[in-house]
Amino acid sequence: MLDNWEEQIGERDEFEVEVHEEFHDLSAEILSKTALGSNFEEGKRIFDVQQQQEILTHQAMHNVYIPGFRFLPNKMNILRWRLEKETREIMRRIIEINRRTSENSMNFLSMLMSGNMNIQNKVIKKL
């Protein structure tokens, strides 16, 4: 982020930057690398999808609740379903990448998966 800012400054004495977006991207990168072991683009996409889901949830909270309405294929529900499916696909892809490449990786997902694998190996050995 700082390298990018220095590049933008160039020869100028000062410049203006939207720090909210910059720190949002920085947070997405840090969380995606430490928690998931994924790259910035995957982490950013997860954050974008979650932000869209958050907006839809906020909108739904301001509507009158009608039982069973969430199962009807209206515009908002279709968008919700698509976002949920995309989130699941991204997470499955990240988990599979971690499963193949993270023998000694130190991200949170790898640590959780290695603990699970240890338990599974012990159960298999007992059988």
TrEMBL record:
Keywords, sorted A to Z: Heme, Iron, Membrane, Metal-binding, Monooxygenase, Oxidoreductase, Transmembrane, Transmembrane helix
GO cellular component, one term: membrane
Organism: Heracleum sosnowskyi
Family statement drawn from the similarity comment of this UniProt entry: Belongs to the cytochrome P450 family.
InterPro entries for this protein: Cyt_P450_sf, Cytochrome_P450_Monooxygen
Intracellular or extracellular location(s): Membrane
Gene Ontology MF annotations: heme binding; iron ion binding; monooxygenase activity; oxidoreductase activity, acting on paired donors, with incorporation or reduction of molecular oxygen
Official protein name in the record: Uncharacterized protein
Keyword Oxidoreductase in annotation: yes
Keyword GTP-binding: no
